[in-house]
Design goal:
Length: 398
């Protein structure tokens, strides 16, 4: 609702060439309690004053030297973006002029000489409408902003859902292919190993047999990664110490880090609560991140920092490396299945999409900040009271 003080403190602008009228109005309105009044007897200056004073109501004479009231109203209409409130006061009391003024946009019409009490009530009514209109505009803006925010959230949610669906579809395919591939390749490898061990081969053939065996091993590794991609591990939630899990994964990589002169820094949150999650899946994510960090550092010496923290009901893991960084154009693709910049021999492009799937299934989030030459930071957020969202990635068909 509009308060009494809002009405009394509104800006009122009087445009009338007769000074006596202006004085009378100013005095009467001041006595009625209005506090912000401006006036001009020169209609040519009305627009300029309107712009700077920004009135909520204009008391406008019609017949004036220079611009008449209709022309002044046209000028106001051009610049007033919200709601033009004009009360026409005129000595011309014919019906036709009244209709013309209302048609031109005046909100009310009074004949001179006017009664101060009546005009004061009419002013109040007009101001109330104008102020209510302002409120509606403000509320509209707030609503519009809320709609925009909500649309943005929905878009983000939608693209997350699309990504999850894509993961699910690719995962189903990958898991069934890997299932079909693994056994025959295992058989081929066994046969090759038997040939290699039991038949005497000349040197180039021996090398080729070794190559074939190692390629079989690589394809089996890929197949098992594809399987994990869809149905990793036990799937059982347990309560475990995240710091121990991180330590375990660092130990696994210790030899590589030492050989490559990569320093590992840990900054562990004191008394971090236990995490409820599928332990081996979380370990797999940490390992993927450490592995990527190692590869991003390459043959240079470098540093990997692993930090943990606790915020409200979430545990946060940050893995930062001093490696090559990620070009902006690749940033929104790194979580896509099979996206790799490492060539098909070295990378499958599954590490991060598997990690993404695992973290999302735990109701968490994984994000990346990176720039070429400035290293990379992965942030993983996990609700400490974990729950598996089966609807995001259904269990694979066996
Ligand atoms: N820490 C990092 N620094 C720089 N680039 C990274 C980092 N982590 C990931 N990337 C980029 O994201 C791509 C996808 O990573 P992802 O782990 O999914 O696959 P990959 O490492 O290429 O292969 P895989 O994990 O199967 O060995 C990488 O090829 C690399 O370009
Ligand atoms: Mg990887």
């Amino acid at each position: 609702m509009v308060s009494e003080s809002d009405i009394l403190n509104s800006n009122i602008f009087i445009v009338d060439d007769e000074e006596a009228n202006v004085l009378l109005l100013e005095k009467g309105l001041t006595l009625a309690g209005f506090t912000s009044i401006k006036s001009t007897t020169n209609s040519n200056k009305a627009l300029e004053i309107y712009k700077s004073f920004n009135p909520q109501l204009v008391l406008l004479d019609l017949r004036m030297p220079g611009l008449d009231g209709f022309q002044v109203m046209e000028q106001f209409k051009e610049i007033e973006k919200s709601y033009l409130s004009v009360l026409v006061l005129t000595a011309e009391n014919d019906h036709e002029t009244c209709i013309r003024a209302l048609k031109a946009g005046a909100k009310d019409f009074l004949n001179k000489p006017f009664d101060l009490t009546e005009i004061s009530f009419r002013i109040r009514n007009l101001l109330e409408v104008r102020l209510l209109n302002n409120r509606i505009l403000e509320q509209n803006q707030i609503l519009e902003q809320k709609v925009q925010e909500r649309t943005k959230e929905l878009r983000a949610y939608h693209s997350q859902l699309l990504h999850s669906e894509k993961l699910s579809a690719v995962g189903k395919l990958a898991a069934s292919i890997s299932h079909e591939f693994n056994n025959p390749i295992l058989g081929v490898r066994n046969i090759l190993e038997q040939i290699r061990n039991q038949v005497s081969l000349n040197e180039p053939l021996e090398d080729l047999a070794d190559l074939a065996i190692s390629e079989c091993t690589r394809v089996m590794g890929l197949a098992s990664k594809l399987k994990q991609f869809y149905r990793p591990t036990s799937g059982q939630i347990s309560s475990f110490d995240l710091h121990e899990a991180i330590e375990d994964m660092i130990i696994l990589k210790k030899k590589n880090f030492r050989e490559k002169n990569i320093a590992v820094e840990k900054e562990f949150f004191p008394d971090l609560p236990l995490l409820n999650a599928v332990e081996d899946q979380i370990k797999q994510v940490i390992l993927n991140l450490l592995h990527n960090a190692e590869e991003a550092i390459g043959n240079d010496t470098g540093k990997i920092s692993v930090t943990t923290s606790c915020q409200n009901s979430n545990l946060i893991i940050r893995v930062q490396d001093s490696g090559c960084g990620i070009p902006p154009g690749n940033l929104d693709q790194i979580f896509e299945p099979f996206f790799t910049t490492k060539g098909s021999v070295k990378g499958t492009g599954l590490g991060l999409s598997v990690s993404y799937g695992i973290i999302k299934r735990h109701g968490g989030d994984i994000s990346c900040q990176s720039a070429p030459g400035e290293g990379t930071l992965f942030t993983v957020t996990l609700p400490k009271e974990g729950a598996i969202k089966e609807d995001l990635v259904e269990q694979v068909i066996s």
